Amino acid sequence: MDLKQPVGPPVDPTPAQPPAPVTLTGRFGSVAKLDPARDAADLWRAFKGHNDIWTYISRHGPFADEPSFAAWLAERATSSDPYTYTVRDQDVRARGLVSFLEIRPAARVIEVGFIVLSPTVQRTPLATETQYLLARYVFETLGYRRYEWKCDALSAPSRRAALRFGFVFEGIFRQHMITKGRNRDTAYFSMLDREWPVRKANFERWLAKKNFDAEGRQRISLSTLNGQDA
Fold first, then answer.
1. What is the CATH number of the domain that holds 92?
2. 13 belongs to a structural domain
3. Does residue 100 sit within a domain?
4. Residues 6 or more apart from 142 whose CB is under 8 A from it?
5. How many domains does the structure of the chain reveal?
6. What single-letter DSSP state applies at residue 58?
7. I want to staple 184 with a disulfide (CB 3.0 to 4.6 A). Which of 21, 60, 73, 179 is the partner?
8. What pTM, to 2 d.p., does this model score?
9. Is the CB of residue 176 less than 8 Å from the CB of residue 205?
10. Are 220 and 206 in contact (CB under 8 A)?
């Protein structure tokens, strides 16, 4: 029945798949399902003494000692939402954590977040490649149509990263959370399945060997490719 009212276009109602314990391998490293027995010691060494990497994580860290960190990590590994992976370098050492969360297969919506990286990984090709591998997995394997990035509105690095990676800023949820006893306004970003082909091409152009000179310096920035340079 046509009621002459505006409605959205039809959408395939087939649910997306939940994340799985895969290993996603790139040129600079890989992303693999968190395994505390394998990863705890490497991650503690990577994170120890860098309490600032936990500032904008809403409910966890920093940790006082290795046993408390290992206990938390073991609990984290049992969760299906958030579903946590490790970021591993070329020597297959865990150097960071990243999670899928707010996983809604029926709506085909998923968020990437809880990104905690060793300072040695931050602002490196591996950090960017990690986001490429995860986005490709979300859109091309799992079948999601909306990929979300949310962060504390005061976290300027996270907001810049979202734009650099090709997410679109949607707005601020004011007084969205109380995190570690403080107010948090949350910045919302998203990437849609119809936007992914262009974002994918930009990631791949940036990650290509020919985009780096002999000293490893980029020839063109990902921000430029995604139209985020002023």
1. 3.40.630.30
2. no
3. yes
4. 16, 17, 18, 19, 110
5. 1
6. S
7. 179
8. 0.95
9. no
10. yes
- For tokens 């990590």, the residue is 73
- C-alpha 20/C-alpha 167 separation (Å) is 23
The predicted-structure confidence for 100-143, as pLDDT tens digits, reads as follows 999 999 999 999 999 999 999 999 999 999 999 999 999 999 99
Locate all alpha helices (DSSP H) within the chain, ordered by sequence.
Answer: 36-47, 66-76, 125-136, 156-164, 196-207, 222-225
Structural domain includes residue 12: no
Q: Per the structure block, which two tokens stand in for 44?
A: 């503690």
Short-list 168, 165, 132, 17, CA closest to 83: 17
Nearest CA to 162 among 148, 180, 176, 179?
Answer: 148
Is there a domain that residue 115 lies in?
yes
For residue range 14-39, list pLDDT tens digits in order: 999 999 999 999 999 999 999 999 99
Residue (of 149, 141, 29) closest to 99 by Cα position:
149
Query: What are the C-alpha distances in Å from 160 to residues 123, 169, 172, 176, 189?
Result: 12, 10, 15, 20, 11
Assess contact for 56 and 152: CB atoms under 8 A: yes
Rounded to 5 degrees, φ, ψ at 206 are: -70, -40
Pairing between β-strand 146-152 and β-strand 109-117 as defined by DSSP bridges: parallel
Neighbours of 49 (CB within 10 A): 9
